[in-house]
Amino acid sequence: MKFSSMLCPLSAAILVALSGSSQAADVEIAPPAGGNVVIRDSTGATARFIVADDGTVTISGLPSTVQEDAPVCFDTVSGQLGSCPSLLGATGPTGPAGPIGPTGATGATGAASIVPGPTGATGATGATGATGAASTVPGPTGATGPIGATGATGATGAQGATGITGALGPTGVTGAVGPTGATGAPSTVPGPTGATGAAGPTGATGAASTVPGPAGATGATGATGPTGPTGAASSVPGPTGPAGAVGPVGPTGATGATGASGTGLVVRDGNNVTLGSIIDMNASSDPDVTVITSNGYYVTINLDGSLGTGANIYFANTTCSGAPYAGANIAGSPKYAKLLVYSALLNQTYVLSGSTSNGQVFPVSQASLGITVGSIDSNGTCVVQGSTAQMFPLTVTPQTSMGLPAPGATRIAVPLQFP
């Protein structure tokens, strides 16, 4: 029932009881027949605690409270609430929450009585019931909940493109050989001639014998005399002697030190990746720079990051699915095989194919191929083309194969950087 703001005997009794009267007594609330004892929140809109006439107790806030870790038991005789025996089985893991049932219709609020009923006599306190015997058998353990499925492993990120290798600098020049020292002048003063020894006496001439005598024994070889001093060098050179035999090839000398790296001008993209060595720059109203990449490809890059060297792309059939060709800018003029050809319409990069041994590609005529070609227009439609005098065969080639970084939001990251 809902209490009135009027002061009545029942409310006065409650106030006295709550104020700590020296006379101990119970506070009793007796609703009219068929009514309930209802305690509401401060707004009066929500019934927090309801005791029905049949003894049913309802606490509306229990379903939304935080789950606690101990159950509540009641005495089966007196209905007194209390903690449960400690011999209960261990609490099993919380099962999955069941679906929320539909909200029941709100019962009609009973009419509030403005006259409180008479206070009933205090009943005698009943004897305390005997404590039930503790169970010796623990309750069953709750079933273990299923293990959640393992989450899928995240995909491995793509490996970043390998940076291009910088161009090899030219070999340093070999230092000049120093001049040969001057040959010393020959002496014009001859050295002294050695003294002539004294002549021995002439022996007497013997009488001529008509019978030759026996041959005398050969005398012993006299000792070699000392070498005379070297004569002065002649101021007139003698005749040139015959050429000597060619001597054996000497061992290969040690390899000389590598020359200093070249200092050619290079260009880098906005991510500081080297694009190649600059071989040409166009400073017109549509500026661009032409480089040779580390893989030797000839590439023209506009300063806004888009690729140059564009061309109309033809296909060797009328459905634009055949082999690709580029239209020649100058009929019959060969091109460098590693020339990058870019189609902005198709957003595709190509290089020339069918090069000669010296790295050149010559154009072919449509008539010699005996084909009808098509090309894709700006609306994405394949259009049959008329006679195309000269064309270059192409091969689809990604930028990374040419020594360039993979295309990003723009073809080349900007701003371009020049050291």
TrEMBL record:
GO terms for cellular component: extracellular matrix; extracellular space. Residues 100-150, 175-264 have a biased composition (Low complexity). Residues 1-24 form the signal peptide. It comes from Dokdonella immobilis. This is Collagen triple helix repeat-containing protein. Pfam families: Collagen. Keywords: Signal. GO terms for biological process: extracellular matrix organization. Residues 93-150, 175-265 are annotated as: Disordered. GO terms for molecular function: extracellular matrix structural constituent conferring tensile strength.
